[in-house]
Each structure stands twice: as C-alpha cells, then as structure tokens.
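I wish you would study the pair of lines that follows with an eye to the fold:

===
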Amino acid sequence: MSCAKQIVLAIVSLVMGCLIYILFRQDILAMHWIGNPKWIEPFRINIGYDGNLLTYIMLYCLSDALWFFSLLILQFQFVDKSIILCNILLYSTIALPFILEALQYFKIIGGTFDILDVVSYLIVLLIVLKIENHEKK
C-alpha cells in the first residue's frame, strides 16, 4: 500500500472514530471541551446498550481502536528507525493505550478499565504490524 493510501486510510479511520462520539456518545466530557455540545445534538443517534456485546464494542471500543489504528499507521509512515528518538516515539505510541488502561485498572488515573479496549488495541497492533511487514517485503 502506498504512503498516500496509508495516510488517507489513517485520516478516514480518525474521522470514523470521531463520528462515533459525535453521533452516539455526546455525553462524554471530551465533547464539552470542544464547546457547547448543543450544536451536535441534532445529529445524535440514540442506541442504548442492552447487554449485546457487539453493541458494546461499537459504542465503547471501536472509536479508540480506530484512533489507535490511525496513530500507528501515521507513526509508521514517518518513523526513521535509524534515529533513536523516532524509535522511542514509536514504542511509546504503541505502549500508550496499554499504559493508560493499566493506570485506570489500578485507579491511578480516572476512567474505566475495559479489557475489551485492551483486546481491541492488541488486534489493531497486530493488524498494523501485519501491514508493515507486508510493506517491507
């Protein structure tokens, strides 16, 4: 996959992750940081979580997975593995969501630990590593 295609894929992934929050999760704190969320209320689609695992994943895990995918794809595009700082940044990017989930688990930071988030991050990491390995061949 060309660099341009991967950048487009990363941007689409990022936008899709944002749309999940705009359309389905307007009640989170981050939406209040961008200003008065009243302007997005007409776009709200109410899907209540009814215990269905697929619904849960779509509402609560997919957006973070899409953002992580976007970040990793872009990170791998611009990393120069011969520069130590680039390697540190790459490995920090890979570790960040796992560290944040662990900090939530141990109640060091606010938030709700979710093992499905960890699983989704692992799946995304494996997909991106597979893409990167395929690109090297």
Q: What stands out?
A: The mean pLDDT is 85. The chain has five helices and no strands. Residues 53-78 form the longest helix (26 residues). Helices lie at 3-24, 29-33, 53-78, 84-105, 115-136.
